[in-house]
Design brief:
460 residues; alpha/beta; Four Helix Bundle (Hemerythrin (Met), subunit A); Rossmann fold; 434 Repressor (Amino-terminal Domain); 8-stranded mixed beta sheet; 22 helices; 57% helix; flat
Length: 460
């Protein structure tokens, strides 16, 4: 995930600050030098870094910080607020026309991911009860129209195209007219990738802009391009008067500097961030939540929203009851794993949990998605009775399960052992829930006992 290196560096800097009772101006200056280096290494624009550090330092050496009981924490809070401001302060929502349809023009370089983004944005709009029409105005890239049609079929959204022989300006105009006739409330126009130095193509997209008068002009930027992304945004902004930026490939091994620079340099807010390859992995960009993630404080609001959107409330309540009464079976465990996986890659979910950044950076720690798939395969190779009563799984059954799941008997043994340990843990924690429980003291004792035995290992 983007920013991992930056997060680790910043946590190290602020860890030193928090450990001190009082801070001198020199302490703050030293910390800011390290923050400056960390930001530059993350590929943040030099001018942006310079201004950011000046603002933070000015506030961090004020009387209220120096006289505070927890000066280190106050400095972290100042950095958090300034990072939030740097990325736009508040969430910038997608425009909505007074009279439908709302026209969204998507622009960007070749390979930035515009066509895929068009499908993702349509999917997001559908989840908000909108009826988008996708317009295929990229007539230059082979298979661009077909790609958009496949995405449209995948999400059940109409796609308008006139082939590759018709001028993109005419395609955009006719697409808009069709949307009005069909009652689509959003029109998403996918345009060809173009270099900012290609005058002919830049003139063409300007002509599309003048023909359809878009309510939104979104620049799709590949976060992996780093500092170049900011230069691209500046060039496009001068030609098209952008209303927003969408960052793609933010899940890649990128330094993330574009996200911290693009708003400050162009004045255009980041409206969405693509966090994966799947069609539903597009999120509204929240500057405050991203700042919190960068500082390793997690992002519980986004995690809760993902849970609310993907987890069945009734199932969750029933699962909680089963855990409390020790009725939890391997069937339930599989169901729970599937619900959690709907929320997205575990690696990204961990980024949203406070303190997990440090855990992820510890030597030997690894989130292995393949291990999760192996676990699912083992459970799915069991009969319904075996899932409900794992104690009946003898050696011959274990051999059959291992063969059916493409794993080894040792893998099956390990899962069953870990599942039993997990059930014991749930039983010990049940004292904290419901009437007649042991209460907090009993629960804390149970936790200490478990931690004393080397901690709990979950079956994935």
């Amino acid at each position: 995930m983007a920013f991992e290196g930056l997060t680790a560096r910043l946590q190290n800097v602020f860890g030193k600050l928090k450990g001190r009772g009082k801070l001198s101006e020199d302490d703050v200056g030293e910390a800011m030098r390290e923050v400056r280096l960390a930001l530059l290494e993350a590929d943040v624009n030099f001018k942006v870094v310079k201004e950011f550090i000046a603002k933070v330092k000015e506030k961090a050496v004020g009387q209220e910080v120096m006289k505070s009981f927890t000066p280190g924490m106050v400095v972290v809070d100042i950095v958090n607020k300034e990072l939030t401001e740097l990325m736009g302060g508040t969430q910038a929502k997608l425009a909505k026309a007074n009279k439908p349809p709302t026209v969204v023009l998507l622009a960007g370089l070749q390979g930035a991911g515009k066509t895929t983004l068009t499908g993702k944005l349509a999917k997001l709009l559908q989840s908000q009860n909108h009826k988008p029409l996708l317009v295929a105005a990229d007539i230059y890239r082979p298979a661009a129209i077909k790609q958009l049609q496949v995405l449209g079929e995948q999400i059940g959204a109409p796609v308008f195209e006139l082939g590759t022989a018709v001028n993109p300006v005419e395609i955009a105009k006719q697409g808009l007219q069709l949307a009005k006739e069909q009652g689509n409330d959003y029109v998403l126009i996918d345009t060809a990738g173009r270099l900012q130095i290609d005058e002919a193509l830049m003139d063409e997209i300007k002509n599309i802009h003048d023909a359809v008068h878009p309510d939104e002009v979104l620049l799709v930027v590949d976060a992996m391009t780093g500092q170049e992304a900011v230069n691209v945004a500046q060039s496009f902004h001068e030609k098209l008067a952008l209303t927003g930026v969408v960052l793609t490939k933010l899940d890649g091994d990128t330094r993330g500097g574009a996200a911290l620079s693009v708003k400050a340099v162009t004045g255009c807010p980041i409206k969405f961030a693509s966090t994966g390859e799947k069609i539903d992995q597009l999120e509204p960009f929240h500057p405050d939540r991203m700042a919190s993630r960068i500082l390793g404080m997690g992002d519980m609001l986004s995690l809760i929203e993902k849970a609310q959107a993907n987890i069945d409330v009734d199932k969750a309540a029933e699962m909680e009851r089963k855990m409390r009464t020790a009725e939890f079976t391997l069937e339930d465990f599989l169901d729970q794993m599937e619900q959690v996986r709907k929320m997205g890659p575990l690696d990204q979910l961990l980024d949203m949990m406070p303190g997990m950044g440090k855990l992820k950076s510890t030597p030997g720690f690894k989130v292995d998605e393949k291990q999760i798939s192996r676990t699912e395969a083992i459970v799915k190779s069991m009969t319904g009775r075996e899932k409900k009563k794992p104690d009946i799984i003898n050696f011959s059954r274990r051999k059959r399960i291992a063969a059916g799941s493409g794993t080894t008997v040792a893998d099956v043994n390990r899962l069953l052992k870990q599942f039993e340990d997990m059930k014991k843990m749930m039983k010990q924690f049940s004292g904290l829930m419901g009437p007649g429980g042991k209460g907090p003291k009993g629960g804390m004792k149970a936790m200490k006992n478990m931690l004393g035995k080397g901690g709990m290992k979950f079956p994935f």
